[in-house]
Specification:
Layout (H helix, E strand, L loop, with lengths): L1 H27 L6 H40 L5 H17 L2 H7 L7 H24 L4 H15 L7 H10 L6 H16 L4 H4 L3 H20 L18 H38 L3 H41 L7 H12 L4 H13 L6 H24 L5 H14 L5 H14 L2 H17 L4 H4 L3 H36 L13
Helix pairs in contact: 1-2, 1-13, 2-8, 2-11, 2-12, 3-5, 3-11, 5-8, 5-10, 6-10, 7-10, 7-20, 10-17, 11-12, 12-18, 13-15, 14-15, 14-17, 15-18, 15-20, 16-20, 17-20
Length: 508
């Protein structure tokens, strides 16, 4: 275990170093930060490294084991109704526990926080149940996704303008550090038992489907509310100063808050698993101890990671965005946005978890490295689009609808497995770093340009969820073209006469 943690620490450092370097360079040049903010940011970066390392170790030994075992065992049930109901409950509980969703909900003051979270969790649970039905009745996820997005396009016509970005953001943040390991393994456990000829494709697409469900339910809620929301709370736009004691107090308060909040939302998942294990799985004590240790690592990892994000990264991001937009070198916003976009996905725990599973399930045909590069390019493009949207005050719907429309068209020219992986990747790219760093950065730019945060800030996470889908679909189309070009040559090779060599075995 210790050796594994050291390996993860090294990986986490390599992932986080680029974004830290960019922020420090900007904080010392274009957007001067106080020594107080710089020290706080460096401490937060260390917390991110430690937190991400602990989380990935815990996810491997606990969350994946729990999800896959429950999914595999549940899929043997002959009672479809109970199968679907339990799947819905799992989706609802896991989403309620997602910290990224809580961070987003706290920034929308015109909607009740818990109502917002419950509506999102409802959509997630419904779509998890739909995924189960698709496996049982051998319905391709691709068709469910296309039908779901067509519903989204229709609902977008009726959603109040300021609520639309929030609705799409709500769908994007549901797949974070808690939900992805558990639900992804749950889906794989079901497909391993229930899938037929499309078994490999069935391992992917769950994250995508559970992202669009919350989008639909949130849109319906916003239509019922029927009015544009108020502007969210003020954001930090000036670098902070203070004493070492004040800094210690900031980290301490956030840490204690996360300890309580994450524990409260994790308890339902833990209780559900151990009750299910007692009646159905009946794991030996050694396996239970291993799962408990993994849960402790997962819990501490998320707490430490979020403490770093909320204390050091979030306030610095909004200050950077505001200062650069109001400086004499505001033209640097686009290249800086592109650089930040390239590096933020490297820090998302859910991205690393998904990429690892993609490589395993495709037996190395789609490597972690290729996946990471493609997702980072998509995230980079998405942040550039977000900044351009603020600078030119472009209506959100004029950008997001065409992006998804193009993605749907590309699915018809892309191998089925790439389609599912692409939509999954969009879901995991929009995690803690998106809500805790990228979104505040764009809000700072919006504030500097006099654009209402509700119109110019929210919606950023939606672009982060959309563009990796586009880039991976392009990768899939390219793969398809290359495969078709190679196929005739391989076919000709197979037609070459085979020389049969007979061996003289002698007389018996």
């Amino acid at each position: 275990m210790a050796k594994n943690i050291l390996s993860k620490l090294k990986e986490s450092f390599i992932s986080i170093f680029p974004i830290v370097a960019i922020v420090l360079v900007l904080g010392l040049t274009v957007s001067p930060l106080s020594s107080y903010d710089i020290i706080k940011f460096i401490i937060s970066a260390i917390l991110l490294i430690v937190g991400m390392s602990f989380f990935t170790v815990g996810a491997d030994s606990a969350m994946f084991t729990m999800g896959s075992s429950v999914g595999g065992n549940l899929s043997k049930s002959r009672k479809i109704v109970s199968f679907i109901l339990i799947s819905f409950c799992i989706g609802f509980i896991v989403t309620m526990a997602e910290p990224d969703l809580s961070v987003l909900a706290s920034q929308v003051i015109s909607l009740n926080k818990w109502l917002f979270i419950c509506v999102v969790a409802l959509g997630f649970g419904i779509c998890l149940a739909l995924f189960v039905l698709s496996i049982i009745f051998q319905i391709k996820i691709k068709y469910l996704l296309i039908a779901s997005y067509l519903i989204v396009f229709v609902l977008a016509i009726f959603v109040p303008e300021a609520y639309l970005p929030i609705s799409v953001d709500a769908g994007a943040v549901t797949n974070g550090p808690i939900s992805v390991p558990f639900v992804l393994a749950f889906g794989m456990g079901i497909s391993a038992v229930r899938s037929g000829k499309h078994k490999e494709e069935d391992n992917f697409g769950l994250i995508a489907l559970t992202s669009v469900g919350p989008l639909i339910t949130t849109m319906l809620m916003c239509i019922l509310v029927g009015k544009n929301p108020e502007t969210s709370q003020a954001i930090i736009t000036e670098t902070q100063t203070g004493t070492a004691l004040q800094m210690f107090n900031e980290f301490g308060v956030e840490f204690l808050s996360n300890i309580l909040n994450i524990l409260v939302v994790l308890i339902p998942i833990i209780i559900f698993f151990f009750i299910y294990n007692y009646f159905f799985l009946k794991y030996p004590k050694t396996q239970i101890i291993k799962i408990i240790i993994g849960l402790v690592y997962t819990y501490l990892g998320i707490v430490v990671f979020l403490t770093g994000i909320m204390t050091g990264f979030l306030p610095v991001a909004s200050v950077l965005g505001f200062n650069i937009a109001t400086s004499n070198v505001s033209w640097l916003l686009i290249p800086i946005a592109a650089l930040i976009g390239l590096t933020t996905s490297l820090v998302e725990p859910a991205v690393h978890v998904t990429n690892k599973k993609v490589e395993e399930m495709t037996q190395g045909r789609i490597s972690k490295k290729v996946m990471m590069i493609t997702i980072c390019i998509g995230t980079s493009i998405s942040l550039v689009i977000s900044i351009l949207r603020v600078l030119f005050n472009i209506n959100f719907i004029y950008l997001i609808i065409p992006i998804y429309a193009v993605c749907i068209i590309l699915t018809f020219f892309c191998p089925a497995i790439f389609t599912s992986i692409a939509f999954d990747s969009g879901g995991v790219a929009s995690g803690a770093m998106s809500t805790g760093f990228v979104l505040p950065f764009v809000m700072g730019v919006a504030q500097a340009n006099g654009v209402d945060i509700m119109f110019g800030g929210f919606g950023t996470i939606a672009f982060i969820a959309a563009m990796p889908i586009f880039t991976i679909l392009i990768l899939g189309v390219t793969y398809n073209i290359i495969y078709k070009l190679k196929a005739p040559k391989e076919k000709r090779k197979r037609k070459k006469p085979v020389e049969i060599i007979e061996f003289d075995l002698g007389e018996e």
